[in-house]
Description:
Elements: E1 2-6, H1 10-17, H2 20-27, E2 32-36, E3 50-52, E4 59-61, H3 63-73, E5 78-89, H4 92-98, E6 103-108, H5 116-122, E7 125-128, H6 138-149, H7 159-163, E8 182-183, E9 186-187, H8 197-215, E10 233-237, H9 241-244, H10 252-268, E11 273-277, H11 281-297, H12 302-307, E12 308-311, H13 314-325, E13 330-335, H14 345-354, E14 359-363, E15 373-376, H15 387-402
Helix pairs in contact: 3-5, 10-15, 14-15
Bound molecules: ligand 4FV.
Amino acid sequence: MRFSVVTAFPDFVEAYFKTSVIGKAVQKGLIECDVVNPRMFAEPPHNQIDDYAYGGGGMVLKAEPLARAVDFVKSPAAKVICLSPQGRLLNQALVESLATEQHLILVCGHYEGVDERFIQAYADMEVSVGDYVLTGGELPALIVVDAVSRRVEGVVGKSSAVEDDSFAKGMLDHPHYTRPSVWRGLKVPEVLLNGDHGAVASWRRRESIARTLSRRPDIVGNAFLAPYIEKGVYLIWGDASRVLGDEAGLPEEVVIKFLKNIISVSERAGCRKVILLLKEAAIRQKIRILLSRLAKLEAECDEYAEMIKVVPNMDRAVSWIKEKEKSSPYMVAITSENKANRIHWDELKMRILGFCRPVAFCYQCKAEDMVGVCLRNPLGVNDSGDIFSGIISVAVTLERIIGLEKKEVPIGRDR
Ligand code: 4FV
Protein backbone atom coordinates (compact mmCIF):
# COMPACT_ATOMS: atom_id res chain seq x y z
CA MET A 1 0.00 0.00 0.00
CA ARG A 2 1.48 3.36 -1.02
CA PHE A 3 0.64 6.80 0.34
CA SER A 4 1.78 10.01 -1.34
CA VAL A 5 1.06 13.21 0.56
CA VAL A 6 0.96 16.46 -1.42
CA THR A 7 1.83 19.18 1.11
CA ALA A 8 3.65 22.48 1.43
CA PHE A 9 4.84 21.29 4.88
CA PRO A 10 6.82 18.10 4.08
CA ASP A 11 8.92 18.06 7.29
CA PHE A 12 5.88 17.68 9.54
CA VAL A 13 4.55 14.79 7.44
CA GLU A 14 7.92 13.04 7.05
CA ALA A 15 8.43 13.19 10.81
CA TYR A 16 5.22 11.25 11.23
CA PHE A 17 6.32 8.61 8.70
CA LYS A 18 9.33 7.89 10.96
CA THR A 19 7.23 7.56 14.13
CA SER A 20 5.81 4.60 16.06
CA VAL A 21 3.69 1.95 14.34
CA ILE A 22 3.67 3.72 10.98
CA GLY A 23 7.46 4.28 11.15
CA LYS A 24 8.00 0.55 11.78
CA ALA A 25 5.60 -0.38 8.97
CA VAL A 26 7.59 1.81 6.57
CA GLN A 27 10.85 0.23 7.76
CA LYS A 28 9.34 -3.28 7.33
CA GLY A 29 8.23 -2.26 3.82
CA LEU A 30 4.60 -3.03 4.67
CA ILE A 31 3.63 0.44 3.46
CA GLU A 32 5.33 3.04 1.28
CA CYS A 33 5.07 6.72 2.21
CA ASP A 34 6.33 9.63 0.14
CA VAL A 35 5.84 13.39 0.27
CA VAL A 36 5.72 15.87 -2.62
CA ASN A 37 5.79 19.65 -2.16
CA PRO A 38 3.71 21.62 -4.72
CA ARG A 39 6.09 24.55 -4.20
CA MET A 40 8.66 22.59 -6.25
CA PHE A 41 6.25 22.80 -9.20
CA ALA A 42 5.33 26.48 -8.85
CA GLU A 43 6.52 29.17 -11.23
CA PRO A 44 9.91 30.64 -10.23
CA PRO A 45 11.15 32.99 -8.97
CA HIS A 46 8.50 33.16 -6.20
CA ASN A 47 7.24 29.56 -6.47
CA GLN A 48 3.85 30.89 -5.43
CA ILE A 49 1.41 28.08 -4.53
CA ASP A 50 -1.48 30.28 -3.37
CA ASP A 51 -3.24 33.44 -4.50
CA TYR A 52 -6.14 35.72 -3.61
CA ALA A 53 -9.59 34.17 -3.89
CA TYR A 54 -11.70 35.42 -6.76
CA GLY A 55 -14.64 37.17 -5.13
CA GLY A 56 -12.49 38.07 -2.11
CA GLY A 57 -12.14 36.35 1.25
CA GLY A 58 -8.58 35.08 1.78
CA MET A 59 -6.02 32.87 -0.05
CA VAL A 60 -6.63 29.75 -2.14
CA LEU A 61 -4.13 27.07 -3.27
CA LYS A 62 -3.45 27.39 -7.02
CA ALA A 63 -4.44 24.46 -9.29
CA GLU A 64 -1.28 24.18 -11.45
CA PRO A 65 1.39 23.46 -8.78
CA LEU A 66 -0.93 20.85 -7.25
CA ALA A 67 -1.67 19.28 -10.65
CA ARG A 68 2.04 19.01 -11.50
CA ALA A 69 2.80 17.59 -8.05
CA VAL A 70 0.13 14.89 -8.48
CA ASP A 71 1.31 14.12 -12.04
CA PHE A 72 4.83 13.72 -10.56
CA VAL A 73 3.80 10.98 -8.10
CA LYS A 74 0.81 9.52 -9.97
CA SER A 75 0.71 5.72 -10.69
CA PRO A 76 -1.84 3.89 -12.88
CA ALA A 77 -3.79 2.59 -9.87
CA ALA A 78 -3.56 5.77 -7.81
CA LYS A 79 -6.67 7.35 -6.30
CA VAL A 80 -6.48 11.10 -5.59
CA ILE A 81 -8.12 12.09 -2.31
CA CYS A 82 -8.58 15.78 -1.42
CA LEU A 83 -8.93 16.41 2.33
CA SER A 84 -11.52 19.08 3.06
CA PRO A 85 -14.52 19.76 5.31
CA GLN A 86 -16.66 19.46 2.17
CA GLY A 87 -15.66 15.82 1.76
CA ARG A 88 -17.36 12.54 2.57
CA LEU A 89 -17.09 11.96 6.35
CA LEU A 90 -14.38 9.44 7.14
CA ASN A 91 -15.63 6.38 9.04
CA GLN A 92 -14.40 2.78 9.47
CA ALA A 93 -16.36 1.55 6.46
CA LEU A 94 -14.71 4.18 4.24
CA VAL A 95 -11.31 3.36 5.80
CA GLU A 96 -11.80 -0.30 4.91
CA SER A 97 -12.67 0.58 1.35
CA LEU A 98 -9.68 2.93 1.02
CA ALA A 99 -7.56 0.04 2.34
CA THR A 100 -8.49 -1.97 -0.78
CA GLU A 101 -6.65 0.59 -2.94
CA GLN A 102 -2.96 0.22 -3.91
CA HIS A 103 -1.93 3.90 -3.98
CA LEU A 104 -3.58 6.89 -2.30
CA ILE A 105 -2.47 10.43 -3.20
CA LEU A 106 -3.59 12.68 -0.34
CA VAL A 107 -3.80 16.39 -1.22
CA CYS A 108 -3.63 18.76 1.75
CA GLY A 109 -5.50 22.04 1.51
CA HIS A 110 -4.55 25.27 3.29
CA TYR A 111 -6.00 28.78 3.83
CA GLU A 112 -9.53 28.92 2.37
CA GLY A 113 -8.99 25.72 0.42
CA VAL A 114 -7.98 24.52 -3.06
CA ASP A 115 -8.98 25.89 -6.50
CA GLU A 116 -12.16 23.94 -7.35
CA ARG A 117 -10.98 23.29 -10.90
CA PHE A 118 -8.11 21.16 -9.54
CA ILE A 119 -10.60 19.10 -7.50
CA GLN A 120 -12.87 18.71 -10.55
CA ALA A 121 -9.96 17.65 -12.78
CA TYR A 122 -8.01 15.42 -10.38
CA ALA A 123 -9.90 14.31 -7.25
CA ASP A 124 -11.43 10.82 -7.11
CA MET A 125 -12.92 11.75 -3.79
CA GLU A 126 -13.02 14.50 -1.18
CA VAL A 127 -12.76 13.26 2.41
CA SER A 128 -13.44 15.09 5.66
CA VAL A 129 -12.22 13.87 9.03
CA GLY A 130 -14.89 15.79 10.88
CA ASP A 131 -17.24 18.76 10.91
CA TYR A 132 -14.72 21.32 12.16
CA VAL A 133 -12.17 23.54 10.40
CA LEU A 134 -8.42 22.97 10.69
CA THR A 135 -5.54 25.17 9.56
CA GLY A 136 -4.40 22.59 7.05
CA GLY A 137 -5.10 19.20 5.46
CA GLU A 138 -1.93 17.56 6.85
CA LEU A 139 -3.49 16.18 10.04
CA PRO A 140 -6.49 14.81 8.10
CA ALA A 141 -4.10 13.23 5.56
CA LEU A 142 -2.17 11.55 8.34
CA ILE A 143 -5.40 10.37 9.96
CA VAL A 144 -6.23 8.62 6.68
CA VAL A 145 -2.70 7.13 6.47
CA ASP A 146 -2.94 5.93 10.09
CA ALA A 147 -6.45 4.44 9.92
CA VAL A 148 -5.89 2.79 6.51
CA SER A 149 -2.42 1.42 7.41
CA ARG A 150 -3.95 -0.41 10.39
CA ARG A 151 -5.90 -2.49 7.82
CA VAL A 152 -2.67 -3.53 6.10
CA GLU A 153 -1.71 -7.06 7.22
CA GLY A 154 1.17 -6.96 9.69
CA VAL A 155 1.11 -3.23 10.49
CA VAL A 156 -0.74 -3.73 13.77
CA GLY A 157 0.57 -6.63 15.93
CA LYS A 158 -2.35 -9.08 16.30
CA SER A 159 -4.62 -8.75 13.20
CA SER A 160 -7.40 -10.07 15.49
CA ALA A 161 -6.95 -6.82 17.41
CA VAL A 162 -7.99 -5.02 14.22
CA GLU A 163 -10.90 -7.37 13.57
CA ASP A 164 -12.19 -6.67 17.08
CA ASP A 165 -11.81 -2.95 16.59
CA SER A 166 -14.67 -0.79 17.74
CA PHE A 167 -16.52 0.35 14.64
CA ALA A 168 -15.19 -2.74 12.79
CA LYS A 169 -18.60 -4.10 13.68
CA GLY A 170 -20.04 -0.60 13.87
CA MET A 171 -20.30 -0.56 17.71
CA LEU A 172 -18.29 1.26 20.40
CA ASP A 173 -15.51 -0.71 22.10
CA HIS A 174 -15.76 -2.12 25.63
CA PRO A 175 -13.62 -0.61 28.45
CA HIS A 176 -10.00 -1.77 28.78
CA TYR A 177 -7.98 -2.37 31.94
CA THR A 178 -4.39 -3.40 32.76
CA ARG A 179 -2.20 -3.78 35.89
CA PRO A 180 -2.41 -2.88 38.74
CA SER A 181 -5.76 -4.57 39.54
CA VAL A 182 -6.31 -1.76 42.10
CA TRP A 183 -5.29 1.79 41.16
CA ARG A 184 -5.83 4.58 43.69
CA GLY A 185 -8.51 2.39 45.24
CA LEU A 186 -10.22 1.77 41.90
CA LYS A 187 -10.64 -1.96 41.16
CA VAL A 188 -10.61 -3.75 37.82
CA PRO A 189 -14.04 -5.44 37.23
CA GLU A 190 -13.90 -8.89 38.88
CA VAL A 191 -15.10 -10.69 35.74
CA LEU A 192 -11.82 -9.74 34.03
CA LEU A 193 -9.68 -11.35 36.72
CA ASN A 194 -11.24 -14.85 36.78
CA GLY A 195 -9.93 -16.09 33.44
CA ASP A 196 -13.42 -17.21 32.37
CA HIS A 197 -13.18 -16.19 28.69
CA GLY A 198 -16.88 -16.79 28.07
CA ALA A 199 -17.85 -14.49 30.92
CA VAL A 200 -15.30 -11.90 29.78
CA ALA A 201 -16.63 -11.99 26.20
CA SER A 202 -20.23 -11.62 27.30
CA TRP A 203 -19.29 -8.75 29.76
CA ARG A 204 -17.45 -6.99 26.95
CA ARG A 205 -20.41 -7.45 24.60
CA ARG A 206 -22.79 -5.95 27.13
CA GLU A 207 -20.39 -3.05 27.84
CA SER A 208 -20.11 -2.28 24.11
CA ILE A 209 -23.88 -2.38 23.75
CA ALA A 210 -24.51 -0.19 26.81
CA ARG A 211 -21.95 2.40 25.68
CA THR A 212 -23.21 2.44 22.12
CA LEU A 213 -26.86 2.79 23.13
CA SER A 214 -26.07 5.58 25.63
CA ARG A 215 -23.35 7.48 23.72
CA ARG A 216 -23.85 6.74 20.01
CA PRO A 217 -27.36 5.50 19.26
CA ASP A 218 -26.82 7.12 15.84
CA ILE A 219 -24.41 4.37 14.75
CA VAL A 220 -26.65 1.41 15.66
CA GLY A 221 -28.47 1.68 12.34
CA ASN A 222 -25.30 0.64 10.50
CA ALA A 223 -24.02 -1.78 13.12
CA PHE A 224 -23.51 -5.50 12.44
CA LEU A 225 -25.51 -6.94 15.31
CA ALA A 226 -24.82 -10.66 14.99
CA PRO A 227 -21.71 -10.63 17.30
CA TYR A 228 -23.73 -8.79 19.96
CA ILE A 229 -26.88 -10.91 20.04
CA GLU A 230 -26.42 -13.25 23.03
CA LYS A 231 -29.40 -15.48 22.24
CA GLY A 232 -30.34 -17.06 18.90
CA VAL A 233 -32.02 -15.50 15.85
CA TYR A 234 -34.67 -17.62 14.14
CA LEU A 235 -36.70 -17.41 10.96
CA ILE A 236 -40.22 -18.80 11.08
CA TRP A 237 -41.85 -19.29 7.69
CA GLY A 238 -45.57 -19.43 8.40
CA ASP A 239 -47.99 -21.54 6.37
CA ALA A 240 -45.16 -22.98 4.28
CA SER A 241 -47.62 -25.46 2.80
CA ARG A 242 -48.40 -22.69 0.29
CA VAL A 243 -44.90 -23.30 -0.99
CA LEU A 244 -44.21 -26.88 -0.05
CA GLY A 245 -47.75 -28.28 -0.01
CA ASP A 246 -49.08 -30.56 -2.72
CA GLU A 247 -51.67 -27.91 -3.53
CA ALA A 248 -48.79 -25.63 -4.43
CA GLY A 249 -47.89 -28.31 -6.95
CA LEU A 250 -44.39 -26.94 -7.26
CA PRO A 251 -41.89 -29.26 -8.95
CA GLU A 252 -39.42 -30.79 -6.52
CA GLU A 253 -36.45 -28.86 -7.91
CA VAL A 254 -38.26 -25.58 -7.17
CA VAL A 255 -38.93 -26.76 -3.63
CA ILE A 256 -35.24 -27.66 -3.28
CA LYS A 257 -34.19 -24.24 -4.66
CA PHE A 258 -36.55 -22.60 -2.15
CA LEU A 259 -35.04 -24.58 0.72
CA LYS A 260 -31.47 -23.86 -0.36
CA ASN A 261 -32.16 -20.13 -0.77
CA ILE A 262 -33.97 -19.71 2.52
CA ILE A 263 -31.13 -21.52 4.28
CA SER A 264 -28.31 -19.46 2.76
CA VAL A 265 -30.22 -16.21 3.46
CA SER A 266 -30.70 -17.23 7.10
CA GLU A 267 -27.17 -18.46 7.61
CA ARG A 268 -25.76 -15.20 6.20
CA ALA A 269 -27.63 -13.37 8.96
CA GLY A 270 -26.44 -15.80 11.60
CA CYS A 271 -29.86 -17.46 12.15
CA ARG A 272 -29.73 -20.60 14.30
CA LYS A 273 -32.70 -22.30 12.66
CA VAL A 274 -35.34 -21.90 9.95
CA ILE A 275 -38.65 -23.21 11.25
CA LEU A 276 -41.29 -24.12 8.64
CA LEU A 277 -44.90 -24.24 9.83
CA LEU A 278 -46.62 -27.12 8.02
CA LYS A 279 -50.07 -28.18 9.28
CA GLU A 280 -50.26 -31.48 7.42
CA ALA A 281 -48.16 -34.28 8.91
CA ALA A 282 -47.78 -35.81 5.44
CA ILE A 283 -46.15 -32.63 4.12
CA ARG A 284 -43.89 -32.41 7.14
CA GLN A 285 -42.80 -36.00 6.53
CA LYS A 286 -42.31 -35.28 2.81
CA ILE A 287 -40.02 -32.33 3.63
CA ARG A 288 -38.04 -34.32 6.20
CA ILE A 289 -37.47 -37.07 3.64
CA LEU A 290 -36.51 -34.49 1.01
CA LEU A 291 -34.01 -32.85 3.37
CA SER A 292 -32.42 -36.15 4.38
CA ARG A 293 -32.21 -37.12 0.69
CA LEU A 294 -30.60 -33.76 -0.06
CA ALA A 295 -28.12 -34.32 2.76
CA LYS A 296 -27.09 -37.66 1.21
CA LEU A 297 -27.01 -36.30 -2.35
CA GLU A 298 -24.89 -33.20 -1.86
CA ALA A 299 -22.11 -33.15 0.71
CA GLU A 300 -22.70 -29.52 1.66
CA CYS A 301 -26.39 -30.27 2.09
CA ASP A 302 -26.10 -32.17 5.37
CA GLU A 303 -26.19 -28.85 7.21
CA TYR A 304 -29.50 -28.28 5.42
CA ALA A 305 -31.20 -30.91 7.45
CA GLU A 306 -29.56 -29.26 10.47
CA MET A 307 -30.79 -25.77 9.61
CA ILE A 308 -34.40 -26.61 8.89
CA LYS A 309 -37.06 -27.65 11.39
CA VAL A 310 -40.65 -28.46 10.43
CA VAL A 311 -43.41 -28.09 13.02
CA PRO A 312 -47.22 -28.09 12.73
CA ASN A 313 -47.90 -24.60 14.12
CA MET A 314 -46.60 -21.39 15.74
CA ASP A 315 -47.11 -22.59 19.32
CA ARG A 316 -44.82 -25.53 18.68
CA ALA A 317 -42.27 -23.26 17.05
CA VAL A 318 -42.30 -20.84 19.99
CA SER A 319 -42.19 -23.59 22.62
CA TRP A 320 -39.31 -25.24 20.76
CA ILE A 321 -37.31 -21.98 20.77
CA LYS A 322 -38.22 -21.34 24.42
CA GLU A 323 -37.01 -24.83 25.32
CA LYS A 324 -33.74 -24.35 23.45
CA GLU A 325 -32.98 -20.81 24.58
CA LYS A 326 -34.49 -20.96 28.07
CA SER A 327 -36.16 -17.69 27.16
CA SER A 328 -39.26 -16.85 25.12
CA PRO A 329 -38.53 -15.37 21.70
CA TYR A 330 -39.17 -11.73 20.77
CA MET A 331 -41.51 -12.06 17.78
CA VAL A 332 -41.03 -9.83 14.75
CA ALA A 333 -43.51 -10.23 11.91
CA ILE A 334 -42.40 -9.15 8.43
CA THR A 335 -45.61 -7.98 6.79
CA SER A 336 -46.91 -5.39 4.38
CA GLU A 337 -50.23 -5.22 6.17
CA ASN A 338 -50.75 -2.02 8.12
CA LYS A 339 -50.44 -3.13 11.71
CA ALA A 340 -50.77 -1.04 14.83
CA ASN A 341 -47.67 -2.57 16.36
CA ARG A 342 -45.44 -1.51 13.47
CA ILE A 343 -41.84 -0.62 14.52
CA HIS A 344 -39.04 1.16 12.61
CA TRP A 345 -36.13 -1.19 11.96
CA ASP A 346 -33.70 1.24 13.64
CA GLU A 347 -35.76 1.11 16.80
CA LEU A 348 -35.93 -2.67 16.56
CA LYS A 349 -32.10 -2.86 16.40
CA MET A 350 -31.90 -0.79 19.60
CA ARG A 351 -34.40 -3.08 21.33
CA ILE A 352 -32.63 -6.25 20.23
CA LEU A 353 -29.36 -4.82 21.58
CA GLY A 354 -31.07 -3.78 24.80
CA PHE A 355 -32.52 -7.15 25.79
CA CYS A 356 -31.08 -10.65 26.10
CA ARG A 357 -33.76 -12.72 24.38
CA PRO A 358 -33.91 -14.88 21.25
CA VAL A 359 -35.48 -13.13 18.23
CA ALA A 360 -37.89 -14.86 15.83
CA PHE A 361 -38.56 -13.21 12.46
CA CYS A 362 -41.89 -14.45 11.11
CA TYR A 363 -42.77 -14.35 7.43
CA GLN A 364 -46.15 -15.26 5.98
CA CYS A 365 -47.52 -15.95 9.46
CA LYS A 366 -51.25 -15.89 10.09
CA ALA A 367 -52.59 -12.72 11.75
CA GLU A 368 -53.40 -14.56 14.99
CA ASP A 369 -49.83 -15.76 15.15
CA MET A 370 -48.41 -12.28 14.78
CA VAL A 371 -47.99 -11.31 18.44
CA GLY A 372 -44.82 -9.11 19.03
CA VAL A 373 -44.00 -6.25 16.65
CA CYS A 374 -44.33 -5.79 12.92
CA LEU A 375 -41.74 -4.73 10.41
CA ARG A 376 -42.77 -3.34 7.05
CA ASN A 377 -42.13 -5.84 4.28
CA PRO A 378 -39.18 -4.07 2.55
CA LEU A 379 -40.48 -5.15 -0.85
CA GLY A 380 -43.87 -3.68 0.01
CA VAL A 381 -45.35 -6.65 -1.87
CA ASN A 382 -48.39 -8.36 -0.32
CA ASP A 383 -47.42 -11.28 1.84
CA SER A 384 -49.17 -13.83 -0.33
CA GLY A 385 -46.56 -13.05 -2.98
CA ASP A 386 -44.51 -15.67 -4.68
CA ILE A 387 -41.92 -17.65 -2.78
CA PHE A 388 -38.93 -15.85 -4.20
CA SER A 389 -40.13 -12.33 -3.41
CA GLY A 390 -40.68 -13.80 0.03
CA ILE A 391 -37.07 -14.92 0.20
CA ILE A 392 -35.91 -11.47 -0.91
CA SER A 393 -38.14 -9.77 1.69
CA VAL A 394 -36.62 -11.95 4.38
CA ALA A 395 -33.07 -11.41 3.09
CA VAL A 396 -33.41 -7.61 3.02
CA THR A 397 -34.99 -7.55 6.46
CA LEU A 398 -32.35 -9.76 8.07
CA GLU A 399 -29.58 -7.71 6.45
CA ARG A 400 -31.13 -4.49 7.72
CA ILE A 401 -31.55 -5.72 11.27
CA ILE A 402 -28.63 -8.05 11.78
CA GLY A 403 -26.47 -6.11 9.35
CA LEU A 404 -23.71 -7.10 7.08
CA GLU A 405 -20.24 -8.10 8.32
CA LYS A 406 -18.55 -5.67 5.84
CA LYS A 407 -20.04 -2.72 4.06
CA GLU A 408 -18.37 -1.79 0.73
CA VAL A 409 -18.03 1.96 0.05
CA PRO A 410 -17.28 2.59 -3.64
CA ILE A 411 -14.19 4.81 -4.20
CA GLY A 412 -14.78 6.94 -7.25
CA ARG A 413 -15.49 10.39 -8.66
CA ASP A 414 -18.42 11.51 -6.44
CA ARG A 415 -19.38 14.23 -8.86
C1 4FV B 1 -10.39 19.40 6.94
C2 4FV B 1 -11.32 18.61 7.63
C3 4FV B 1 -10.09 20.81 7.20
C4 4FV B 1 -10.03 23.64 5.78
C5 4FV B 1 -9.34 24.71 5.03
C6 4FV B 1 -7.71 23.14 5.71
C7 4FV B 1 -8.96 22.84 6.43
C8 4FV B 1 -7.98 24.22 4.76
N1 4FV B 1 -9.83 18.64 6.01
N2 4FV B 1 -11.28 17.37 7.10
N3 4FV B 1 -12.12 18.98 8.65
N4 4FV B 1 -9.27 21.42 6.29
O1 4FV B 1 -10.58 21.39 8.16
O2 4FV B 1 -10.38 17.40 6.13
O3 4FV B 1 -8.03 23.65 3.51
